[in-house]
């Protein structure tokens, strides 16, 4: 596959949208729309007594509140592990002393380059939230096994949260 032409259609704060003309291996020329995103990290913070610390926030794009694991965009030059620790503290008010990489995934590879690194966090030290001026969220604690149940029965419909909780259950035997 060969990119013949790539035109920036939108240059936003967190993403860029391109319209590409691509020559396929069979000689056919097609148009592809691609969202270029510099990545993010998400984290499953687990307390000493086995609770997952989650954030509930209104998500404008879907028009409702969602219960999710903490997550956020990578800053320039930041490693995913650093982002996961930073986001945990900023959103929940707890600083993790132990971070374990669980997996990476592409959020929607059919049209988007966003790769999300997913981590588990343990040994959480009380700190302070550092929310952005446009960030309004509430911290909730849910027992880990209840969170697994909520993910399996469809109560939780945020894909990163479902995947992260279930992977943490299997890999960390929580």
Quickly list its features.
174 residues; alpha+beta; four-stranded mixed sheet; three-stranded antiparallel sheet; 3 helices; 10 strands; elongated
In short:
Helix content is 21%, strand content 47%.
Write a structural description:
It is a single chain. The chain has 174 residues and is an alpha+beta fold. 21% of the residues lie in helices and 47% in strands. The protein has 3 helices and 10 strands. It has helices spanning 80-92, 144-152, 159-172; strands spanning 2-11, 16-23, 29-36, 40-45, 51-59, 64-68, 71-73, 94-106, 115-126, 137-143. It has a 4-stranded mixed beta sheet, with helices on both faces. Strand 5 and strand 6 (64-68) form a beta hairpin. The radius of gyration is 18 Å and the shape is elongated. The relative contact order is 0.19.
The helix-and-strand class reads: alpha+beta
Query: Can you count the helices?
Result: 3
Please tell me what the overall shape is: elongated
Please, what is the average pLDDT? Answer: 95
Topology as a string of helices (H) and strands (E) = EEEEEEEHEEEHH
Total DSSP E strands: 10
The proportion of residues in beta strands is: over 45%
Tell me the span between the first and last alpha carbons: 43 Å
- Main β-sheet description: 4 strands, mixed
Low-confidence segments, ≥5 residues, pLDDT <50? none
- Radius of gyration from CA coordinates: 18 Å
Q: Which strands sit side by side, in order, in the main sheet?
A: 7-4-9-8
Helix percent reads 10-25%
């Amino acid at each position: 596959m060969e990119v013949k032409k790539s035109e920036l259609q939108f240059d936003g704060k967190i993403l860029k949208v391109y319209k590409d003309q691509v020559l396929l291996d069979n000689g056919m020329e097609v148009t592809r729309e691609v969202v270029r995103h510099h990545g993010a990290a998400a984290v499953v913070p687990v307390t000493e007594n086995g609770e997952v610390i989650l954030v509930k926030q209104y998500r404008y794009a879907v028009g409702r509140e969602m219960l999710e694991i903490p997550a956020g965009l990578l800053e320039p030059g930041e490693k995913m592990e650093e982002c996961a620790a930073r986001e945990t503290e900023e959103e929940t008010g707890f600083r993790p002393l132990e971070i374990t990489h669980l997996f990476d995934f592409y959020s929607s590879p059919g049209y988007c380059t966003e790769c999300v690194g997913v981590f588990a966090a343990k040994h959480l030290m009380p700190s302070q939230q550092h929310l952005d001026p446009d960030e309004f969220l509430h911290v909730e604690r849910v027992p880990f096994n209840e969170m697994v149940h909520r993910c399996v029965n469809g109560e939780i419909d945020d894909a990163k949260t479902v995947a992260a909780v279930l992977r943490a259950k299997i890999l960390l035997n929580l």
